[in-house]
Amino acid sequence: MTSACDDNTLIFYHVVGIDPDEESGFINAVTRLPQILVRPPLGVEIQVRPLPTQAYGVVESIASGCSLPEGISDARFELLDVPGCRTFIVTACRNDHPLAQLARKGNPKAVWGATCGRFALVYNLGNPYGVWHEALHLLRAQDCYTADDDGPTCELQNCIMQYAATHETVGDWPFLCAPNCDRVRRFVRGIAP
Ligand SMILES: [Zn+2]
Ligand SMILES: [Zn+2]
């Protein structure tokens, strides 16, 4: 990758083995994310771009080296490095795809998607909130639900980091609680690693 990065945070998106309708829903969700996150109360700038075709093989390599929840070596991302930029990948696949099966094996609670270091996988296609939830994990947002009963652990009733986020439970922006806004802001602005 030689093109420069205007912002510090760049998310590549990519799909494997999904039909065109599902693909356009996913791409619509992921490309709306920068417009959402730039608004108050969060106010951060990120970029999203399609994953260059020559890098498709990297995803397989990253995903197969991904052992949730430990994460993966950053070395696998070297091929995707863009000068001046922190790079991430969000990949969409079907629920029964081997990558989705691998993610659930690592974390049985990951019913819709999973994040592993700088790589996120989403397989609840048709739900933009699932895409945004996983992408926000890449930007350091943490889950807002308890491990035992999935109950909320933050005060924002429609927080997207609560369990199984949907249009019904989350609705319109703003939908990220103050502690997570703080984490994401500090990360994207380079204050926190
Ligand atoms: Zn989560
Ligand atoms: Zn929250």
Task: Please tell me about this protein's structure.
With 193 residues, the protein is of the alpha/beta class. The chain has one domain (9-143, 178-188). It has helices spanning 20-37, 56-64, 98-106, 128-138, 178-188; strands at residues 9-16, 47-50, 86-93, 113-116, 119-122. It has a 5-stranded mixed β-sheet, sandwiched between helices. β1, α1 and β2 (47-50) form a beta-alpha-beta unit. α1 packs across α4. The two termini are 23 Å apart. The model is unreliable at 68-73 (pLDDT under 50). Bound molecules: zinc ion (2 copies). One zinc ion (ZN) binds at residues 133, 137, 143.
List the helices and strands and how they pair.
Layout lengths: L8 E8 L3 H18 L9 E4 L5 H9 L21 E8 L4 H9 L6 E4 L2 E4 L5 H11 L39 H11 L5
The structure holds zinc ion (2 copies).
One zinc ion binds next to loops.
Give the overall silhouette. globular
For the sheet with most strands, the description reads:
5 strands, mixed
Order of helices and strands: EHEHEHEEHH
The residue-averaged pLDDT reads 87
How many structurally independent domains?
A: 1
> In order across it, which strands form the biggest sheet?
2-1-3-5-4
Counted beta strands? 5
Which percent range fits the helix content?
A: 25-40%
Number of helices: 5
Q: What is the distance, rounded to the nearest whole angstrom, between the alpha carbons of the first and last residues?
A: 23 Å
Ligands, deduplicated: zinc ion
Low-confidence stretches: 68-73
Structural class assignment? alpha/beta
Radius of gyration: 16 Å
What proportion of the residues form beta strands (DSSP E)? 5-15%
